[in-house]
Write a structure and sequence with these properties.
Strand content: under 5%
Order of helices and strands: HHHH
Mean pLDDT: 78
Largest sheet: none
Structural class: mainly alpha
Shape: elongated
Helix content: 55-70%
Radius of gyration: 42 Å
Low-confidence stretches: none
Number of helices: 4
């Protein structure tokens, strides 16, 4: 009878970590990252508004003298820009409304003029059509005003 070579199986759990590669294997694969233990502490600070808290101001001033004055100047510039933008928006809104009123007046005046002219030349149906333009425009304006959200 021939003798069988018996190779013993490795005994261990499936969750066991593989052994670290040998120095020869590491030299063959230099691109593999080496896992080194590391630890670190980080700290974050958050604030809302344009100005940091006083302790942060002191640190800013220690690193860069005059930094807080620059922060205040930037906040003032931002506020001035926001005020100017709001004023421009109000001005444009006013001018837009004014233009709409003038156009409405001109349309109504032309419609009434056309209606009177058509009534003068004995065309009552055309005169009624001209008057319906201004009546419908006023009705539409009233309906839109009723549907508009309350402020």
């Amino acid at each position: 009878m021939a003798k069988k070579n018996h190779i013993p199986a490795k005994i261990g759990s499936a969750n066991q970590r593989p052994s670290s590669p040998s120095p020869a294997t590491q030299q063959q694969h230099p691109t593999q990252p080496q896992h080194l233990p590391s630890s670190g502490i980080s700290q974050q600070a958050h604030w809302s508004g344009p100005y940091p808290p006083p302790d942060a101001v002191e640190r800013h001033e220690a690193v860069l003298p005059g930094a807080f004055n620059r922060i205040i100047a930037m906040a003032e510039q931002l506020q001035s820009a926001q005020i100017a933008q709001s004023q421009k928006a109000l001005e444009y809104s006013y001018l837009n409304g004014r233009r709409g009123h003038w156009l409405g007046f001109a349309t109504t005046a032309l419609a009434f003029g056309g209606a009177f002219f058509c009534a003068w030349i004995s065309s009552p149906w055309v005169a009624g059509a001209f008057l319906s333009i201004s009546v419908m425009a006023v009705a539409k304006a009233l309906i839109d005003a009723a549907k508009a959200p309350k402020r």
